[in-house]
Design goal:
Oligomer: heterodimer
Low-confidence stretches of chain A: none
Distance between the termini of chain B: 57 Å
Helix content of chain B: 55-70%
Distance between the termini of chain A: 21 Å
Mean pLDDT of chain A: 93
Radius of gyration of chain B: 21 Å
Radius of gyration of chain A: 20 Å
Number of strands of chain B: 0
Helix content of chain A: over 70%
Chain lengths: 213, 220
Amino acid sequence: MNTDELIALLARQSPAVDHRAPVRRFGLALALGFAGAGALAILLLGVREDIAAALRLPMYWWKLLFAASLAAASLLVTLRMATPGRRVGLGWVGIALPVAVAAVAAAVALQLAPRESWGELIRGDTWLVCPFLIALLSTPALVGALAAVRNLAPTRLGLAGAACGLLAGSLATMAYCVHCPEMAVPFWAIWYTAGMLIPTVVGALLGPRVLRW
Amino acid sequence: MTNPPMTYSTAAVRLELADATPDMLQFPAASEVLMEATPQSAVEARLRTALEAGLAGDARAYRTFLEELGACLRAYLRRRLHHAPADVEDLLQETLLAIHNGRHTWVPSQPVTPWLYAIARYKLIDHARAHRRRDALNLSLEDAGELLAAADHEPAQAGHDVGLLLQQLPDHHRLPILFVKVEGLSVREASERTGMSESAIKVGVHRGLKALARLIGNTP
């Protein structure tokens, strides 16, 4: 088939394009991913027993805000990366900012606390499992995000995969908050970020294989 | 009486002068000169209009878009692949198919050149990676402005036969493409011929073209 024939083929019966359909599909994938993370958190890990009291603590909402702002920023970056030729630009700042703020808050908290308590503040009770649990919770959202982005047109596959991973990780962290007993800023600034980095790296590795179109 | 268009080849000018009477001789307007001086922006404007109309459902505009884009891409790829001219037509077809499959990601308010350039570059890098032995691909791809700078309407022989690759698709992809895209039947007619539902036909064409793109990408 020569190029003219291919062009004739592509142009014949090409119906109008619905610009909202891919975004809708993406939203659905994310909603399912978040629901999956929530289901895993509630059914597999269990809601923390003091959840009623925890919800009244400002620190609970700071954790949630940290994760939610990363989710919003990585969603923006993912959507931009899924459009060819679209520059991410300041989108990267949106990701760096919550991490930087949390790091500063953790440093301040450590400064204000006696040095003997630093180990406890940083390790808490669950530092060994926390990142891996977040990574586990992110699996449905990662699959959903990758599948949705594959239907768009990413041109930098590794980075697009990483953005999907960070998005999945931050959604998982939001869900994880209902289970996690740790409140100290040094703890979650480190281990929640580490937990989100795992699906980010997995997404970056999977991207070039899975996102081809 | 309309004025003859200004051309820039010497032979044509001589002919015009020979036939012209004094009141016909005119210097080109400044705006005409400026338009000739920036052909890329004129092409960008044409492609953008055609694509926008095409995405709204105008099949003829979409075809015009693909044809003019194809000529520009061919010239661009010929420059980039001057050491492997046999690959140009294949990569051109692969890129056109990718642009078709990704057309839903272009937002009509955006310029068309960066979008096209990103896709062309993506396919070109893929190609370079797959043919790593064909070294020294001078990939200074930073200049998106080059993409629409020239047009080449002379097709070369393609190495792949997309027609043959189509035959390799499973029935639920191949048949909808065959009836709707090759034979030009309507979705309803294709549905009657194949026994597949109308939505299955539409999905079959959509997914079939994506599967075809992956087949081309995987075939050396």
